[in-house]
Amino acid sequence: MLQQQTIWILIAEIAYLLILGITCLRIVLDTRSGSKTLAYLLFAIFVPIIGIAFYFSFGVNYRKRKMYDKKLNVDEQFKKEVHHLFQAHNLEEAIHSDEVLLKSERLIKLLANRKSNRAFLLPNNDIRLLFNGEEKFPALITDLQQAQHHIHIEYYIYENDEIGNVIKEILKEKAKQGVKVRVIYDDFGSKSIRRNIARELKKHGVEAFPFNKVRLLFLANRLNYRNHRKIVIVDGIVAYTGGINVSDKYINGPNNEVYWRDTHLRIKGTGAMALQQVFVSDWNFCSEEYLPVTGDRYFPFKNMEMHGQGKLQVISSGPDSDLPNILFATLQAVHTAKSEILLTTPYFIPDETLQQSLLMAAMGGIDVKLLVPEKGDSRIVDSVSRIYFEELLQAGVKIYLYKKGFIHAKTFVVDGVLASVGTANLDLRSFDLNFEVSTLIYDTQIAEQLRTAFYEDLKYSEQLLYTRWIKRSLWIKGLERVLRLVSPFM
Fold it and tell me: Which residue of the set 75, 186, 235, 351 is catalytic?
Protein backbone atom coordinates (compact mmCIF):
# COMPACT_ATOMS: atom_id res chain seq x y z
CA MET A 1 0.00 0.00 0.00
CA LEU A 2 2.81 2.39 0.94
CA GLN A 3 4.60 1.64 -2.32
CA GLN A 4 1.42 2.35 -4.30
CA GLN A 5 0.97 5.70 -2.53
CA THR A 6 4.59 6.57 -3.33
CA ILE A 7 3.98 5.83 -7.02
CA TRP A 8 0.88 8.04 -7.08
CA ILE A 9 2.76 10.86 -5.35
CA LEU A 10 5.57 10.52 -7.89
CA ILE A 11 3.06 10.62 -10.79
CA ALA A 12 1.41 13.71 -9.28
CA GLU A 13 4.77 15.44 -8.89
CA ILE A 14 5.75 14.67 -12.49
CA ALA A 15 2.36 15.90 -13.72
CA TYR A 16 2.71 19.10 -11.71
CA LEU A 17 6.21 19.72 -13.08
CA LEU A 18 4.91 19.22 -16.62
CA ILE A 19 2.06 21.68 -16.00
CA LEU A 20 4.52 24.13 -14.42
CA GLY A 21 6.87 23.81 -17.39
CA ILE A 22 4.04 24.40 -19.89
CA THR A 23 2.83 27.37 -17.83
CA CYS A 24 6.30 28.94 -17.72
CA LEU A 25 6.71 28.47 -21.46
CA ARG A 26 3.34 30.10 -22.08
CA ILE A 27 4.20 32.99 -19.78
CA VAL A 28 7.42 33.66 -21.73
CA LEU A 29 5.73 33.42 -25.13
CA ASP A 30 2.50 35.23 -24.28
CA THR A 31 3.41 38.11 -21.96
CA ARG A 32 4.52 41.35 -23.62
CA SER A 33 6.04 43.14 -20.61
CA GLY A 34 9.42 41.94 -19.39
CA SER A 35 8.75 42.86 -15.76
CA LYS A 36 5.36 41.17 -15.86
CA THR A 37 6.91 38.04 -17.41
CA LEU A 38 9.42 37.79 -14.59
CA ALA A 39 6.74 38.42 -11.95
CA TYR A 40 4.44 35.71 -13.33
CA LEU A 41 7.36 33.25 -13.57
CA LEU A 42 8.42 33.84 -9.97
CA PHE A 43 4.84 33.61 -8.73
CA ALA A 44 4.16 30.38 -10.63
CA ILE A 45 7.40 28.72 -9.50
CA PHE A 46 7.55 29.78 -5.86
CA VAL A 47 3.84 29.75 -5.00
CA PRO A 48 2.80 26.21 -6.00
CA ILE A 49 -0.64 25.71 -7.58
CA ILE A 50 -1.89 29.17 -6.53
CA GLY A 51 0.65 30.90 -8.78
CA ILE A 52 -0.39 28.82 -11.80
CA ALA A 53 -4.08 29.35 -11.06
CA PHE A 54 -3.50 33.10 -10.71
CA TYR A 55 -1.76 33.31 -14.08
CA PHE A 56 -4.45 31.40 -15.95
CA SER A 57 -7.15 33.49 -14.25
CA PHE A 58 -5.66 36.92 -14.84
CA GLY A 59 -2.52 36.69 -16.95
CA VAL A 60 -3.52 34.82 -20.08
CA ASN A 61 -4.10 37.06 -23.05
CA TYR A 62 -7.63 35.81 -23.65
CA ARG A 63 -8.66 39.20 -24.96
CA LYS A 64 -7.08 38.63 -28.40
CA ARG A 65 -7.98 34.95 -28.54
CA LYS A 66 -11.58 34.97 -27.49
CA MET A 67 -13.41 37.91 -25.99
CA TYR A 68 -12.17 40.65 -28.31
CA ASP A 69 -11.39 38.79 -31.54
CA LYS A 70 -14.66 39.96 -33.05
CA LYS A 71 -14.20 43.51 -31.77
CA LEU A 72 -10.70 43.72 -33.21
CA ASN A 73 -11.88 42.56 -36.63
CA VAL A 74 -14.89 44.88 -36.70
CA ASP A 75 -12.79 47.79 -35.39
CA GLU A 76 -10.19 47.29 -38.11
CA GLN A 77 -12.77 47.59 -40.87
CA PHE A 78 -14.46 50.49 -39.11
CA LYS A 79 -11.17 52.37 -38.69
CA LYS A 80 -10.43 51.98 -42.40
CA GLU A 81 -13.81 53.50 -43.27
CA VAL A 82 -13.33 56.40 -40.86
CA HIS A 83 -9.76 56.90 -42.11
CA HIS A 84 -11.00 57.28 -45.69
CA LEU A 85 -13.76 59.61 -44.51
CA PHE A 86 -11.31 61.89 -42.69
CA GLN A 87 -8.97 61.89 -45.68
CA ALA A 88 -11.82 62.76 -48.05
CA HIS A 89 -12.50 65.93 -46.08
CA ASN A 90 -8.86 67.06 -46.03
CA LEU A 91 -8.54 67.27 -42.25
CA GLU A 92 -4.84 66.44 -42.17
CA GLU A 93 -2.92 69.46 -40.96
CA ALA A 94 0.36 70.56 -42.53
CA ILE A 95 2.83 70.20 -39.66
CA HIS A 96 5.50 72.42 -41.16
CA SER A 97 3.15 75.44 -41.16
CA ASP A 98 2.83 75.62 -37.36
CA GLU A 99 5.69 76.12 -34.91
CA VAL A 100 3.89 74.28 -32.09
CA LEU A 101 3.16 71.31 -34.34
CA LEU A 102 6.71 71.26 -35.60
CA LYS A 103 8.01 70.74 -32.05
CA SER A 104 5.79 67.64 -31.73
CA GLU A 105 6.24 66.36 -35.28
CA ARG A 106 7.53 62.91 -34.32
CA LEU A 107 4.73 62.41 -31.79
CA ILE A 108 2.05 63.46 -34.31
CA LYS A 109 3.40 61.12 -36.96
CA LEU A 110 3.72 58.25 -34.47
CA LEU A 111 0.04 58.45 -33.52
CA ALA A 112 -1.12 58.94 -37.11
CA ASN A 113 0.72 55.81 -38.25
CA ARG A 114 -1.70 53.17 -39.50
CA LYS A 115 0.10 50.51 -37.41
CA SER A 116 -0.60 52.38 -34.20
CA ASN A 117 -3.66 54.50 -33.60
CA ARG A 118 -4.46 56.12 -36.99
CA ALA A 119 -5.11 59.31 -35.04
CA PHE A 120 -5.65 62.28 -37.35
CA LEU A 121 -4.42 65.69 -36.33
CA LEU A 122 -7.71 67.58 -36.16
CA PRO A 123 -7.95 71.40 -36.46
CA ASN A 124 -10.71 73.96 -35.86
CA ASN A 125 -11.62 73.04 -32.29
CA ASP A 126 -12.90 75.15 -29.42
CA ILE A 127 -11.31 73.45 -26.39
CA ARG A 128 -12.25 74.21 -22.80
CA LEU A 129 -10.64 72.86 -19.66
CA LEU A 130 -13.18 71.98 -16.96
CA PHE A 131 -11.91 71.61 -13.41
CA ASN A 132 -13.85 69.34 -11.06
CA GLY A 133 -17.49 68.37 -11.27
CA GLU A 134 -18.55 71.91 -10.34
CA GLU A 135 -17.47 73.08 -13.81
CA LYS A 136 -18.11 69.94 -15.84
CA PHE A 137 -21.68 69.02 -14.98
CA PRO A 138 -23.38 72.41 -15.55
CA ALA A 139 -21.74 72.62 -19.00
CA LEU A 140 -22.61 68.99 -19.79
CA ILE A 141 -26.24 69.40 -18.71
CA THR A 142 -26.63 72.46 -20.95
CA ASP A 143 -25.26 70.60 -23.98
CA LEU A 144 -27.38 67.52 -23.32
CA GLN A 145 -30.51 69.65 -23.11
CA GLN A 146 -29.68 71.26 -26.47
CA ALA A 147 -29.16 67.95 -28.33
CA GLN A 148 -31.05 67.72 -31.62
CA HIS A 149 -30.12 64.39 -33.18
CA HIS A 150 -28.19 62.06 -30.88
CA ILE A 151 -26.49 61.72 -27.51
CA HIS A 152 -23.76 59.11 -27.01
CA ILE A 153 -22.54 58.42 -23.46
CA GLU A 154 -19.84 56.03 -22.23
CA TYR A 155 -18.66 55.89 -18.61
CA TYR A 156 -16.68 53.64 -16.33
CA ILE A 157 -18.58 54.83 -13.25
CA TYR A 158 -22.18 55.99 -13.39
CA GLU A 159 -23.65 56.24 -9.89
CA ASN A 160 -27.24 56.02 -8.73
CA ASP A 161 -27.01 59.36 -6.91
CA GLU A 162 -28.20 62.94 -7.37
CA ILE A 163 -26.19 63.88 -10.48
CA GLY A 164 -26.72 60.41 -11.94
CA ASN A 165 -30.48 60.82 -11.67
CA VAL A 166 -30.42 64.39 -12.99
CA ILE A 167 -28.68 63.18 -16.14
CA LYS A 168 -31.02 60.17 -16.33
CA GLU A 169 -34.07 62.45 -16.43
CA ILE A 170 -32.52 64.57 -19.19
CA LEU A 171 -31.77 61.46 -21.27
CA LYS A 172 -35.32 60.19 -20.82
CA GLU A 173 -36.75 63.55 -21.90
CA LYS A 174 -34.48 63.79 -24.95
CA ALA A 175 -35.42 60.25 -25.99
CA LYS A 176 -39.08 61.25 -25.66
CA GLN A 177 -38.38 64.19 -28.00
CA GLY A 178 -37.00 61.83 -30.65
CA VAL A 179 -33.29 62.27 -29.97
CA LYS A 180 -31.39 58.99 -30.33
CA VAL A 181 -29.76 58.28 -26.97
CA ARG A 182 -27.18 55.53 -26.57
CA VAL A 183 -25.44 54.67 -23.29
CA ILE A 184 -22.51 52.34 -22.57
CA TYR A 185 -21.71 51.69 -18.92
CA ASP A 186 -19.01 49.47 -17.50
CA ASP A 187 -20.80 46.60 -15.82
CA PHE A 188 -18.45 46.54 -12.83
CA GLY A 189 -17.69 50.23 -12.35
CA SER A 190 -21.38 51.14 -12.77
CA LYS A 191 -22.82 48.17 -10.91
CA SER A 192 -25.04 50.46 -8.81
CA ILE A 193 -27.23 51.33 -11.83
CA ARG A 194 -27.76 47.84 -13.23
CA ARG A 195 -31.16 47.27 -11.62
CA ASN A 196 -32.47 50.85 -11.52
CA ILE A 197 -31.17 53.60 -13.78
CA ALA A 198 -30.17 51.28 -16.62
CA ARG A 199 -33.56 49.56 -16.60
CA GLU A 200 -35.43 52.86 -16.36
CA LEU A 201 -33.50 54.32 -19.30
CA LYS A 202 -34.32 51.31 -21.45
CA LYS A 203 -37.97 51.51 -20.44
CA HIS A 204 -38.13 55.10 -21.72
CA GLY A 205 -36.52 54.55 -25.12
CA VAL A 206 -32.82 54.93 -24.31
CA GLU A 207 -30.56 52.20 -25.66
CA ALA A 208 -28.22 51.15 -22.84
CA PHE A 209 -25.72 48.30 -22.86
CA PRO A 210 -23.14 47.10 -20.33
CA PHE A 211 -19.55 46.75 -21.46
CA ASN A 212 -17.94 43.38 -20.68
CA LYS A 213 -20.91 42.06 -18.71
CA VAL A 214 -20.05 40.67 -15.29
CA ARG A 215 -21.85 37.44 -14.47
CA LEU A 216 -20.70 37.12 -10.85
CA LEU A 217 -20.00 40.47 -9.21
CA PHE A 218 -18.29 38.95 -6.18
CA LEU A 219 -15.62 37.50 -8.48
CA ALA A 220 -15.05 40.79 -10.30
CA ASN A 221 -12.15 42.99 -9.23
CA ARG A 222 -9.54 45.43 -10.48
CA LEU A 223 -7.88 42.71 -12.53
CA ASN A 224 -10.72 42.47 -15.03
CA TYR A 225 -10.47 44.17 -18.42
CA ARG A 226 -12.64 47.18 -17.63
CA ASN A 227 -13.82 50.03 -19.84
CA HIS A 228 -12.27 53.04 -18.13
CA ARG A 229 -13.24 55.50 -20.88
CA LYS A 230 -15.37 58.58 -20.18
CA ILE A 231 -16.93 59.96 -23.36
CA VAL A 232 -19.98 62.05 -24.23
CA ILE A 233 -20.82 63.15 -27.79
CA VAL A 234 -23.72 65.45 -28.65
CA ASP A 235 -24.82 65.64 -32.32
CA GLY A 236 -21.30 64.72 -33.47
CA ILE A 237 -20.07 68.25 -32.81
CA VAL A 238 -19.63 68.62 -29.02
CA ALA A 239 -17.74 66.08 -26.92
CA TYR A 240 -16.56 65.59 -23.34
CA THR A 241 -13.72 63.41 -22.07
CA GLY A 242 -11.29 63.29 -19.15
CA GLY A 243 -11.13 61.95 -15.62
CA ILE A 244 -14.59 62.80 -14.24
CA ASN A 245 -17.19 60.05 -13.97
CA VAL A 246 -20.91 60.52 -13.24
CA SER A 247 -20.89 60.68 -9.45
CA ASP A 248 -21.67 63.21 -6.71
CA LYS A 249 -18.21 62.76 -5.23
CA TYR A 250 -16.72 64.80 -8.10
CA ILE A 251 -18.85 67.81 -7.08
CA ASN A 252 -17.20 69.39 -4.07
CA GLY A 253 -19.94 70.48 -1.71
CA PRO A 254 -20.40 70.86 2.05
CA ASN A 255 -21.38 67.20 2.43
CA ASN A 256 -18.29 65.78 0.72
CA GLU A 257 -15.89 64.07 3.10
CA VAL A 258 -12.98 64.32 0.62
CA TYR A 259 -12.14 67.16 -1.75
CA TRP A 260 -12.02 65.65 -5.26
CA ARG A 261 -9.65 67.33 -7.71
CA ASP A 262 -10.06 66.35 -11.37
CA THR A 263 -9.77 67.67 -14.93
CA HIS A 264 -12.05 67.24 -17.94
CA LEU A 265 -12.33 68.57 -21.51
CA ARG A 266 -15.14 70.05 -23.55
CA ILE A 267 -14.37 69.90 -27.27
CA LYS A 268 -16.45 71.54 -29.99
CA GLY A 269 -15.28 70.82 -33.51
CA THR A 270 -13.61 68.06 -35.50
CA GLY A 271 -12.18 66.47 -32.35
CA ALA A 272 -15.69 65.38 -31.36
CA MET A 273 -15.73 63.06 -34.36
CA ALA A 274 -12.52 61.36 -33.21
CA LEU A 275 -14.19 60.58 -29.87
CA GLN A 276 -17.25 59.52 -31.85
CA GLN A 277 -15.07 56.95 -33.59
CA VAL A 278 -14.03 55.46 -30.24
CA PHE A 279 -17.61 55.39 -28.98
CA VAL A 280 -19.06 53.82 -32.13
CA SER A 281 -16.39 51.10 -32.07
CA ASP A 282 -17.37 50.26 -28.50
CA TRP A 283 -21.08 50.51 -29.30
CA ASN A 284 -20.81 48.10 -32.22
CA PHE A 285 -19.15 45.63 -29.87
CA CYS A 286 -21.63 45.99 -27.00
CA SER A 287 -24.85 46.16 -28.99
CA GLU A 288 -23.85 44.00 -31.97
CA GLU A 289 -25.26 46.82 -34.10
CA TYR A 290 -23.21 48.43 -36.87
CA LEU A 291 -23.64 52.19 -36.96
CA PRO A 292 -22.84 53.62 -40.41
CA VAL A 293 -19.86 55.86 -41.08
CA THR A 294 -21.35 57.38 -44.22
CA GLY A 295 -23.79 60.27 -44.14
CA ASP A 296 -23.80 63.25 -41.82
CA ARG A 297 -25.61 61.79 -38.83
CA TYR A 298 -22.64 60.76 -36.70
CA PHE A 299 -19.74 62.35 -38.60
CA PRO A 300 -21.13 65.72 -39.77
CA PHE A 301 -18.13 66.89 -41.78
CA LYS A 302 -20.19 68.91 -44.27
CA ASN A 303 -21.79 70.98 -41.53
CA MET A 304 -18.61 71.42 -39.49
CA GLU A 305 -17.77 75.08 -38.94
CA MET A 306 -14.60 76.77 -37.74
CA HIS A 307 -15.25 76.56 -34.01
CA GLY A 308 -11.78 77.46 -32.79
CA GLN A 309 -8.03 77.32 -33.35
CA GLY A 310 -7.30 74.26 -31.24
CA LYS A 311 -5.57 71.25 -32.80
CA LEU A 312 -5.66 67.83 -31.20
CA GLN A 313 -5.28 64.07 -31.57
CA VAL A 314 -7.46 61.50 -29.81
CA ILE A 315 -5.75 58.23 -28.92
CA SER A 316 -7.26 55.07 -27.49
CA SER A 317 -5.67 51.91 -26.21
CA GLY A 318 -6.54 48.71 -24.43
CA PRO A 319 -7.38 45.11 -25.24
CA ASP A 320 -8.89 46.35 -28.52
CA SER A 321 -5.58 47.73 -29.81
CA ASP A 322 -2.45 45.90 -30.93
CA LEU A 323 -0.10 48.44 -29.38
CA PRO A 324 -0.07 50.40 -26.09
CA ASN A 325 -0.79 53.67 -27.88
CA ILE A 326 -1.21 55.85 -24.80
CA LEU A 327 2.05 54.57 -23.32
CA PHE A 328 3.80 55.25 -26.64
CA ALA A 329 2.36 58.77 -26.73
CA THR A 330 3.51 59.46 -23.15
CA LEU A 331 7.00 58.14 -23.84
CA GLN A 332 7.36 60.16 -27.03
CA ALA A 333 6.11 63.30 -25.27
CA VAL A 334 8.74 62.81 -22.56
CA HIS A 335 11.44 62.30 -25.19
CA THR A 336 10.50 65.50 -27.06
CA ALA A 337 10.70 67.68 -23.92
CA LYS A 338 13.31 70.43 -23.90
CA SER A 339 12.77 72.16 -20.58
CA GLU A 340 9.77 71.04 -18.48
CA ILE A 341 7.49 68.03 -17.90
CA LEU A 342 4.52 68.31 -15.52
CA LEU A 343 2.74 65.02 -14.71
CA THR A 344 -0.39 64.50 -12.63
CA THR A 345 -1.77 61.04 -11.87
CA PRO A 346 -3.65 59.38 -9.00
CA TYR A 347 -1.88 56.05 -9.55
CA PHE A 348 1.80 55.83 -10.41
CA ILE A 349 3.04 52.32 -11.18
CA PRO A 350 5.12 52.84 -14.33
CA ASP A 351 6.56 50.19 -16.59
CA GLU A 352 10.33 50.06 -17.00
CA THR A 353 10.41 52.23 -20.13
CA LEU A 354 8.44 55.10 -18.60
CA GLN A 355 10.45 55.02 -15.38
CA GLN A 356 13.73 55.09 -17.30
CA SER A 357 12.49 57.84 -19.61
CA LEU A 358 11.68 60.07 -16.64
CA LEU A 359 15.05 59.30 -15.07
CA MET A 360 16.87 60.19 -18.31
CA ALA A 361 14.86 63.40 -18.74
CA ALA A 362 15.66 64.62 -15.22
CA MET A 363 19.32 63.64 -15.48
CA GLY A 364 19.46 65.47 -18.81
CA GLY A 365 18.52 68.75 -17.14
CA ILE A 366 14.78 68.79 -17.81
CA ASP A 367 12.59 70.01 -14.94
CA VAL A 368 10.39 66.96 -14.27
CA LYS A 369 7.62 67.34 -11.70
CA LEU A 370 5.27 64.53 -10.63
CA LEU A 371 2.10 65.22 -8.63
CA VAL A 372 0.33 62.32 -6.88
CA PRO A 373 -2.13 62.08 -3.97
CA GLU A 374 -0.77 62.00 -0.44
CA LYS A 375 -3.49 59.44 0.32
CA GLY A 376 -5.16 57.54 -2.49
CA ASP A 377 -8.17 55.28 -2.39
CA SER A 378 -6.03 52.14 -2.02
CA ARG A 379 -3.31 51.70 0.59
CA ILE A 380 -1.74 48.86 -1.37
CA VAL A 381 -1.52 50.92 -4.56
CA ASP A 382 -0.10 53.84 -2.58
CA SER A 383 2.58 51.57 -1.11
CA VAL A 384 3.48 50.13 -4.51
CA SER A 385 3.71 53.62 -6.02
CA ARG A 386 6.26 54.66 -3.39
CA ILE A 387 8.62 51.93 -4.58
CA TYR A 388 9.56 54.00 -7.62
CA PHE A 389 10.18 57.27 -5.81
CA GLU A 390 13.73 56.82 -4.52
CA GLU A 391 15.49 56.48 -7.87
CA LEU A 392 13.34 59.25 -9.35
CA LEU A 393 14.25 61.61 -6.51
CA GLN A 394 17.90 60.64 -6.77
CA ALA A 395 17.86 61.51 -10.48
CA GLY A 396 16.35 64.92 -9.79
CA VAL A 397 12.64 64.36 -10.43
CA LYS A 398 10.57 66.57 -8.11
CA ILE A 399 7.70 64.64 -6.50
CA TYR A 400 4.78 66.33 -4.75
CA LEU A 401 2.07 64.80 -2.55
CA TYR A 402 -1.34 66.49 -2.90
CA LYS A 403 -2.75 67.09 0.59
CA LYS A 404 -6.00 68.99 0.01
CA GLY A 405 -7.90 65.82 -0.94
CA PHE A 406 -7.73 63.17 -3.63
CA ILE A 407 -6.26 64.28 -6.95
CA HIS A 408 -7.78 62.11 -9.68
CA ALA A 409 -6.67 64.10 -12.77
CA LYS A 410 -4.67 62.35 -15.48
CA THR A 411 -2.79 65.11 -17.28
CA PHE A 412 0.61 66.21 -18.49
CA VAL A 413 2.11 69.39 -19.90
CA VAL A 414 5.37 69.48 -21.88
CA ASP A 415 7.33 72.70 -22.44
CA GLY A 416 4.18 74.79 -22.17
CA VAL A 417 3.09 73.81 -25.70
CA LEU A 418 1.79 70.23 -25.51
CA ALA A 419 -1.00 69.20 -23.12
CA SER A 420 -2.79 65.92 -22.46
CA VAL A 421 -6.05 65.19 -20.64
CA GLY A 422 -7.34 61.65 -20.52
CA THR A 423 -8.66 58.67 -18.62
CA ALA A 424 -5.40 56.72 -18.33
CA ASN A 425 -3.35 56.63 -15.16
CA LEU A 426 0.42 56.23 -15.25
CA ASP A 427 0.24 52.56 -14.37
CA LEU A 428 0.50 49.18 -16.03
CA ARG A 429 -3.24 48.58 -15.76
CA SER A 430 -4.09 51.66 -17.83
CA PHE A 431 -1.39 51.00 -20.39
CA ASP A 432 -2.21 47.33 -20.94
CA LEU A 433 -5.42 46.02 -19.36
CA ASN A 434 -8.10 48.71 -19.37
CA PHE A 435 -9.87 50.42 -22.25
CA GLU A 436 -8.67 54.04 -22.15
CA VAL A 437 -8.78 57.25 -24.20
CA SER A 438 -6.65 60.39 -24.09
CA THR A 439 -6.54 63.69 -25.94
CA LEU A 440 -3.29 65.39 -26.93
CA ILE A 441 -3.69 69.14 -27.43
CA TYR A 442 -1.25 71.22 -29.48
CA ASP A 443 -2.22 74.65 -28.22
CA THR A 444 -0.10 77.03 -26.13
CA GLN A 445 -3.14 78.65 -24.52
CA ILE A 446 -4.58 75.35 -23.24
CA ALA A 447 -1.12 74.16 -22.21
CA GLU A 448 -0.56 77.34 -20.23
CA GLN A 449 -3.95 77.01 -18.51
CA LEU A 450 -3.16 73.43 -17.53
CA ARG A 451 0.33 74.48 -16.43
CA THR A 452 -1.16 77.22 -14.24
CA ALA A 453 -3.59 74.70 -12.71
CA PHE A 454 -0.66 72.37 -11.97
CA TYR A 455 1.24 75.05 -10.06
CA GLU A 456 -1.96 76.03 -8.24
CA ASP A 457 -2.27 72.39 -7.10
CA LEU A 458 1.33 72.52 -5.84
CA LYS A 459 0.22 75.14 -3.30
CA TYR A 460 -1.74 72.36 -1.58
CA SER A 461 1.06 69.82 -1.87
CA GLU A 462 4.19 68.80 -0.02
CA GLN A 463 7.42 68.17 -1.89
CA LEU A 464 9.27 64.96 -1.09
CA LEU A 465 12.95 65.51 -0.44
CA TYR A 466 15.51 62.84 -1.26
CA THR A 467 17.51 63.48 1.93
CA ARG A 468 14.42 62.67 4.02
CA TRP A 469 13.07 59.90 1.81
CA ILE A 470 16.20 57.75 2.09
CA LYS A 471 15.88 57.79 5.90
CA ARG A 472 12.89 55.44 5.75
CA SER A 473 13.23 52.46 8.06
CA LEU A 474 14.88 49.27 6.86
CA TRP A 475 11.57 47.48 7.43
CA ILE A 476 9.76 49.86 5.05
CA LYS A 477 12.52 49.55 2.45
CA GLY A 478 12.40 45.77 2.69
CA LEU A 479 8.64 45.76 2.27
CA GLU A 480 8.98 47.97 -0.81
CA ARG A 481 11.39 45.51 -2.38
CA VAL A 482 8.86 42.72 -1.87
CA LEU A 483 6.01 44.83 -3.23
CA ARG A 484 8.04 45.63 -6.33
CA LEU A 485 7.79 41.95 -7.28
CA VAL A 486 3.98 42.18 -7.41
CA SER A 487 3.79 45.68 -8.93
CA PRO A 488 3.22 44.30 -12.47
CA PHE A 489 -0.08 42.82 -11.23
CA MET A 490 -1.41 46.13 -9.80
Answer: 235
